[in-house]
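Worked example 3 (structure in, sequence out).
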């Protein structure tokens, strides 16, 4: 009985210590969702048309809107980068990450990855159907695309996949520097993929901004759920810090 009371007390104290950080995360989710709602409202009213067109024109030669600015290899680079946000690549990355987590004995974390990524894909699909925004016709598209425009599926799904994987993989690492590196890679990939969609002329900038907002909000929500389940003991605990590393903040 005494041991159970001590365990309950320990769980309560841990929850109290994490409560301020959890509140900050929920505030972050709220801000991201408000940003998405505001963008969706402005797009629906047509108020972003001037900004969208001006931003795309900046990335094209004034004499020929079919010609993107920069040398030829910049175009090739962005075509390669945009593929990192495609369904095939994201699917393979997710499968490889799940395999790593399973081999590491993190079965519950692997399930969280599946739920987060699949849920993000479904959310992106239904949002596109709901807003039904056509693709840009202002400039020539440098890659073939057939789906709807708002929000950007590449921007949203790369945010969901890479940020979720970055956070969960960082969670099972012991060193602070390793965790920071994994999160930095996830953020950089997400930003580059979104920028590539505008450069290639297949998305309006507001499509990408909206995709980042809702994708990051979904990834952050999944992270909050993972932390909550961790405190309840329903998922594998995070790896302890390496002996030569300072412990990461809660």
């Amino acid at each position: 009985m005494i041991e159970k009371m001590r365990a309950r007390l320990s769980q309560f104290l841990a929850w109290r210590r994490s409560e301020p950080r959890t509140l900050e995360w929920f505030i972050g989710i709220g801000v991201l969702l408000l940003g998405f709602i505001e963008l969706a409202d402005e797009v629906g009213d047509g108020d972003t048309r001037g900004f969208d067109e001006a931003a795309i024109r900046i990335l094209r030669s004034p004499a020929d809107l079919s010609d993107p600015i920069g040398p030829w290899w910049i175009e090739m680079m962005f075509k390669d980068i945009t593929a990192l946000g495609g369904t095939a690549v994201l699917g393979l990355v997710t499968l490889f990450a799940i395999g790593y987590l399973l081999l590491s004995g993190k079965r519950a974390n692997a399930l969280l990855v599946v739920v987060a990524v699949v849920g993000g894909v479904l959310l992106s699909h239904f949002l596109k159907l709901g807003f039904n925004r056509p693709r840009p016709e202002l400039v020539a598209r440098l890659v073939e695309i057939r789906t709807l425009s708002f929000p950007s599926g590449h921007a949203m799904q790369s945010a969901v996949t890479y940020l979720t994987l970055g956070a969960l993989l960082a969670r099972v690492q012991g060193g602070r520097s390793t965790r920071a590196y994994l999160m930095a890679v996830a953020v950089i990939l997400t930003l580059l993929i979104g920028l590539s969609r505008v450069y290639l002329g297949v998305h309006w900038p507001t499509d990408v901004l909206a995709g980042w907002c809702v994708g990051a909000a979904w990834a952050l929500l999944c992270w909050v759920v993972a932390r909550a389940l961790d405190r309840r003991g329903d998922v594998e605990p995070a790896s302890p810090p390496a002996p030569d590393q300072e412990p990461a903040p809660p």
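Notes: The mean pLDDT is 81. Residues 75-238 form one domain.
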